[in-house]
Specification:
The protein is α/β, with parallel strands linked by helices. Helices cover 29% and strands 20% of the residues. It contains 12 helices and 17 strands. It is globular. The termini are far apart. It binds S-adenosyl-L-homocysteine (SAH). S-adenosyl-L-homocysteine (SAH) binds at residues 173-174, 198, 248-251, 254-256, 279-280, 284, 332-333, 359, 361-364, 388-391.
Length: 409
């Protein structure tokens, strides 16, 4: 027979013994889903990969350090033959067949009695695709279906989670692809979305039409007025039974005033949860090719807000002490005060030749990097007409990433 017609079925493996023969990369790829399903996973193999060994160490799987013997199937409900030896795999499948245990054969799907589909999940729906011997095709179809569900082009009438409350969702540095799956899910389940200027705005266009979108940029200005209004709105909507997403760029707790919103919700008795986001002081340099740490170069990275100039009465930063640090400094909201900050760092002891990279509009179409040193930073920012949002990275890691421009320091 050329084609089998598999019968799809969702197995409930909770606390049921599953035998995995082989401890290599195929096993390593399959085991997490078994663990996630709550299975009692037993691995039989003389050797396992370090990742599987880690799962053994944490008690998530049991490892029998030896070669397969048919007795290993005792008590098993399901088996996977994943070794790189076709003979062993055939032996496992034959023994499983005799015991009437369904068995996946990784090297030759048709030699087994069960196939592993390409799996994905979205908003409580599991998508499993069997591509009849073409794993790339099944993975491709799965990805298309998931994307359709996420983007709403496949109108799944899934049950939205309508528990009232507030979810703080970090949208990542700007590119919508860099937002977490949990964040997207929360967005799609929202009745009300309160969005910031720096949140990945393209995603807002995907929201169902009945979602109320509140644009913070349009709320009254002023340092505390705006935040008070946000607190008031999220609490009021949640108390009215709505599911509210507070949607920000990066991570809500990194210079995002997120915790003030948590406190406001708590004070009003509104349930509040948090979906972290990729924060720009780490993600933006990374996308621009600059690591915030590098062995032998920086054993620390310090993230500082530059929204107040050094010496400002409300500043909580000891810039002279920061100037004495030798690791990576990541400055945020610092474009305007950069010349004063650079001068304060040099006054505090940092070398004026320390390399600096300014990454503007990180992860967005206009992303660019301007290179300078602490001595030339102010001039470069003016010459290159740098505008926020920008991340300023100071330290030897910039030289590591740009050896064409800097000598290693
Ligand atoms: N909560 C956000 C930061 C908010 S403060 C986070 O976790 O990333 C705003 C500052 O973040 C900006 O002034 C800029 O310094 C930085 N920033 C955020 N997104 C950025 C981006 N895409 N490119 C460059 N800088 C960015």
């Amino acid at each position: 027979m050329d084609d089998y017609t598999p019968y799809p079925s969702g197995l409930i493996l909770t606390a049921r013994r599953v035998l995995v023969v082989g401890g290599g990369h195929v096993a390593q790829r399959r085991i997490p889903a078994l663990i996630a399903a709550g299975a009692d996973v037993h691995v039989v193999s003389p050797e396992v990969t370090p990742a599987i060994e880690g799962l053994v160490g944490s008690g998530e799987v049991t490892w029998h350090r030896r070669r397969f013997a048919p007795l290993d199937l005792d008590g098993a409900w399901y088996a996977l033959a994943t070794t790189d030896d076709p003979e062993v795999n055939a032996q496992v499948c034959a023994a499983a067949e005799a015991d009437r245990i369904f068995c996946v054969r990784a090297d030759d799907a048709r030699g087994g009695t069960a196939w592993t589909p390409a799996v994905g999940r979205h908003a409580g729906v599991t998508v499993a695709v069997l591509g009849n011997r073409d794993p790339r095709r099944s993975a491709g179809v799965r990805d298309e279906v998931l994307e359709g569900l996420r983007e709403g082009t496949i109108a799944a009438r899934h049950q939205r989670d309508h528990t009232p409350g507030v979810v703080l969702v970090g949208g990542g540095p700007g590119d919508p692809e860099l937002m977490s799956v949990a964040g997207r899910k929360a967005l799609m389940e929202a009745d009300v979305v309160v969005a910031d200027r720096l949140a990945p705005r393209e995603l807002l266009g995907e929201l169902p039409a009945d979602v109320e979108l509140i644009d913070v940029a349009k709320l009254p200005r002023g340092r505390s007025a705006q935040q008070e209004e946000i607190n008031r709105v999220i609490v009021e909507r949640a108390l009215a039974g709505k599911r509210v997403v507070r949607f920000k760029g990066g991570d809500n707790f990194v210079f995002g005033r997120g915790y003030e919103e948590v406190l406001a919700c708590r004070a009003a008795g509104v349930p509040v949860t948090v979906v972290p986001g990729l924060t720009s002081p780490v993600a933006v340099p990374a996308v621009a090719g600059i690591p915030v740490t590098h062995r032998g170069v920086a054993h620390e990275f310090t993230v500082i807000s530059g929204h107040l100039p050094p010496g400002h009465p409300e500043s909580l930063t000891n810039w002279a002490a920061v100037g004495g640090l030798s690791g990576t400094l990541v400055l945020m909201m610092a474009v305007q005060n950069a010349p004063a900050i650079a001068a304060a760092l040099v006054a505090g002891g940092r070398d004026a030749d320390t390399p600096v990279a300014v990454v503007c509009d990180g992860t967005m179409p206009g992303q660019r990097t301007v290179l300078a040193t602490l001595a030339t930073l102010g001039d470069e920012l003016a010459a290159q007409d740098v505008k926020p949002p920008a991340i300023i990275v100071v330290g030897g890691v910039v030289a590591v990433a740009h050896p064409e421009r800097f000598e290693r320091v």
